């Protein structure tokens, strides 16, 4: 193999369908300095750095950019750095600003203030899943991504934020455009895509700003209303902060969940005995989703970290201001941490994966994402009769960070009610 | 080798007795079985209940979120054992290898594990301690009785002692909207564990939640009414309080009386053992068949100058029990030292407090992240220019990093920048422990390695 640095090979599209052998190669050097990036791939080291207060998520602290560009690999928020009109959302901030905004956001999402929000969405999630599966024509070729995994999370985020039903289709449109910018098609004109992206972003921003105004006057039980009318010990959020937060929830919760569900179905179809077990026992979806987050994590690596000081780890020194990439997907298959790591095994007893990250930035939406995937996969298993893959491997999106199939063509004999 | 033959026989059909059937006892028994012990296992416990968990007793139970009978410890494996619950051990014959039980029976052992823990120190005046409405909190029965009285809606609760347990009880009372007075001899709550600087934060927290906190005072006497119910408490500053419930939270006494005269090195400070959990006899010679774990143990810790540490920490009980059980079944070269880095948690007044290392050995304190005023911070304790402990208030996710600094005897104050460093984190301040029990400094020890099983010590010379 003479395709240049390991990092470049990982980013190369031809390797998208199976980057795991390259990750195994990567783990041979737990801290690899290539193309001016410091790439960390072993479980213990990734976990350690996720909890290291000398590691910053605020890229303004980065003094040595990686010579290799993730370009289209990242979420559009990063691409727009500099020209963005919104302040950075909390995923790109360090404590104390990060903690303040995350805490504020959490007052309308999780314990102790809203311990039941996610749980109470269970019925609604089931209904959305049921509608989507009901709308599939089971007689021909099904694209699971377009017909199911993709529309599901956007609808969920609409309901969570409190986007009125009649506006959902407009919202879907903007989300589509934003997501498309994560997935450039070869040969497409990037300026056109960028223009469309900017426009969608502006329209979405204006739409949300209007909705926030409305909810300040007429608060409902939804998240936007609660965030717009916050008034607790931590104060409140400015409209700009609220807009960035809403955009973050949309972006962070969207492509990730799509891929978790699609990767899930792909993995199940490749492991039919597990699919069969899930059909008989929907409760298997709980450990199964955890194992999926280890085995095929939708976020493959966490880039955009930097160091506030020289850090010594695993015999290497990561200099201050470095561009640090934490490859959670490689860590999740570290044989020093997981027995037989390349085996998909939902019965694994110890599955503390890094699929949701760890430390103060660990996934905010994890309880919701888990529930979405559990319901989606157990319902697909129950309702699709004799489902099978039409293409293996399927065609992947170009994004190496938020990795997942662009389409998942499947067929089945029938769809149970 | 004959020793190997002995161990094999021990594993196959030996007799192991565990005295003290609580957290440490249960976890040890489970480890014995999972490590292949197939012989007779006898679990002696003076409480009538299956092993249960104590931390909820001062938290969820007092709030009515869980009931005392829902605190049974989860079982890791099905455990085949001869349970002697409700039966205290009353004596030990080391020569004959026999444990005497309260019912007169004697149980023979090849290996003995002692996990008798501690009990709450009662109010010193016996007559006053017997008044109706005076409680301690250590057991399920204590919690059941106290909870029942809290539900009745007392006019005022007096908590004597503002350590972790006392502070948690006060917190539960406030959450139930019960007026509460806390009397503490020291300058602030938690001052013994975390020092005066952090204690001041805890004091503010209590007052802000409506606790009538009296520091620098002692309760000099309790007074009952004609029916024998407590009605007043007198304080050393001349004032008095009129509670109808008094909770005495003055720390713990080691359960070692039953070993008096046995020849084992057991006393009021606990049972001394080596790093492999083997008990010392009174001559200072280590035994080879008697092991100790949990709150009752005192063991030398390489990270802390080989001082004997007694830890009343849940995590220590589990880890030490597992190590003791492992060592009970193997040859000396395969034994592991108990090198658990102390860690503790508490929740009170809506704040999650966690610590690692031994903060109370620290002389200096640096607020490395966050701020005391916001009550969200990481405090690092320094002793002789090295990091010896850390505490977090609502910042627990950073703790593994600081634990690593302690394990590697990193220099204090930490010289590097971190996220969330505030002006107050620019320099360290005296930690303000009331009675700095400063250990003598010796060589320091650095821990390294991947899993607890392959931790190896490397000696580095002392820094002074
Ligand atoms: C209210 C409360 C809150 C706590 N909260 C926390 C917390 O938040 N975090 C934390 O880290 N730790 C906490 N702890 C401490 C933690 O519970 C202890 O560290 C742990 O219980 C120690 O377990 P052990 O098995 O060593 O001892 P114990 O739990 O004390 O068990 C010893 C057992 O031995 C029995 N026994 C004693 N003598 C005899 C005898 N002669 N014969 C037979 N049996 C005997 C005792 O009755 C008891 O059942 C708390 C403790 C209490 C009481
Ligand atoms: C399977 C689905 C998901 C996966 C795999 C996933 C993964 C992750 C990961 C790895 C991070 C850490 C990023 C970092 O450390 O910089 C993260 C952060 C985050 N996620 Fe998720 N996520 C998923 C779904 C969701 C959903 C549904 C939401 C919203 C409802 C969400 C909201 C967030 C937010 C807000 C953050 C930033 C947290 C912070 O910086 O404190 N995620 N996610």
TrEMBL record, chain A:
Gene3D superfamilies: Cytochrome P450 (1.10.630.10). The keyword Oxidoreductase applies. Keywords: Heme, Iron, Metal-binding, Monooxygenase, Oxidoreductase. InterPro entries: Cyt_P450, Cyt_P450_B, Cyt_P450_CS, Cyt_P450_sf. Residues 69-79 have a biased composition (Low complexity). The keyword Ribosomal protein does not apply. Residues 68-96 are annotated as: Disordered. Pfam families: p450. One of its GO terms (molecular function) is monooxygenase activity. Belongs to the cytochrome P450 family. This is Cytochrome P450.
UniProtKB/TrEMBL annotation, chain B:
GO terms for cellular component: cytoplasm. InterPro entries: FAD-oxidoreductase/Apoptosis (IPR050446), FAD/NAD-bd_sf (IPR036188), FAD/NAD-binding_dom (IPR023753), FAD/NAD-linked_Rdtase_dimer_sf (IPR016156), Reductase_C (IPR028202). Residues 344-414 form the Reductase C-terminal domain. The keyword Transferase does not apply. Residues 415-464 are annotated as: Disordered. Residues 15-321 form the FAD/NAD(P)-binding domain. GO terms for molecular function: oxidoreductase activity, acting on NAD(P)H. The keyword Oxidoreductase applies. Keywords: FAD, Flavoprotein, Oxidoreductase. Its cofactor is FAD. PANTHER family: APOPTOSIS-INDUCING FACTOR 1, RIESKE DOMAIN-CONTAINING PROTEIN-RELATED. This is FAD-dependent oxidoreductase. It comes from Streptomyces pacificus. The lineage of its organism: Bacteria, Bacillati, Actinomycetota, Actinomycetes, Kitasatosporales.
